[in-house]
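R.M. (postdoc): so does anyone remember the format we settled on? I'll just put the C-alpha cells first.
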C-alpha cells in the first residue's frame, strides 16, 4: 500500500517472495511534493509466508507512515519477521505504529530489524544521498510499540541501525 488512508487488511494469506504486507508513501524528494502519507491502517488475522519480510514499512516512505495497528498475524518462512527500512534522502516520519500478538516461525535472519541505512544500490537506485543538511532528508522513526511479538526460532534477533554521524 502506497500513500493510502483508512486501509483495512484482514483474514488474508499471502506468499509474495518479496515483502509480504508492505506500507510505503513515495520515494525521496519527488514524493515530498505530494502531501500523501500512508495512514490509519488496520491489519489483523493475516498469515504471510515465504517473504523477505512479513510486515514491512519502507523503504519508500518519504511522506510518512502513521497510525498503524498490526495484530493477530503470523509470519512463516520469511527472511525477516518485522522490518522498518529507510535511508538518508528518504526522509519521512514513521510514527504511532503498534504491533500486537504477532507470531513468527522459521525466520531465517532477524525477527525485527529497524534500519535507517538501507542500501539503495541493491535495488538499482542511482540517486543515493550520502550527506544532507536538509531536515526533510532525514528519516524519523518514533513511537513504535511491540506487545507479545514472539519468534519461536533460536537464532533470530532484533537489530536497530541508525544513521551514522
Amino acid at each position: 500500500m502506497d500513500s493510502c488512508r483508512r486501509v483495512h487488511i484482514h483474514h488474508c494469506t499471502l506468499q509474495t517472495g518479496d515483502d509480504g504486507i508492505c506500507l510505503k508513501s513515495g520515494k525521496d524528494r519527488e514524493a515530498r511534493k505530494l502531501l500523501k502519507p500512508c495512514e490509519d491502517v488496520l491489519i489483523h488475522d493475516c498469515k504471510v509466508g515465504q517473504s523477505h519480510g512479513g510486515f514491512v514499512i519502507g523503504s519508500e516512505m518519504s511522506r510518512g507512515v502513521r497510525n498503524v495497528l498490526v495484530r493477530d498475524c503470523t509470519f512463516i518462512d520469511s527472511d525477516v519477521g518485522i522490518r522498518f527500512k529507510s535511508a538518508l534522502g528518504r526522509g519521512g516520519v514513521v510514527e504511532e505504529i503498534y504491533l500486537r500478538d504477532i507470531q513468527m516461525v522459521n525466520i531465517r535472519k532477524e525477527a525485527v530489524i529497524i534500519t535507517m541505512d538501507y542500501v539503495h544500490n541493491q535495488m538499482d537506485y542511482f540517486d543515493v544521498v550520502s550527506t544532507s543538511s536538509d531536515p526533510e532528508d532525514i528519516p524519523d522513526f518514533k513511537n513504535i510499540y511491540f506487545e507479545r511479538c514472539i519468534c519461536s526460532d533460536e537464532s533470530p534477533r532484533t537489530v536497530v541501525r541508525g544513521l551514522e554521524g
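R.M.: ...and that's the designed sequence above, right after the C-alpha cells. Also worth knowing: The domain at 5-161 is CATH 2.160.20.10 (Pectate Lyase C-like). Residues 16 and 51 are 6 Å apart (CA to CA).
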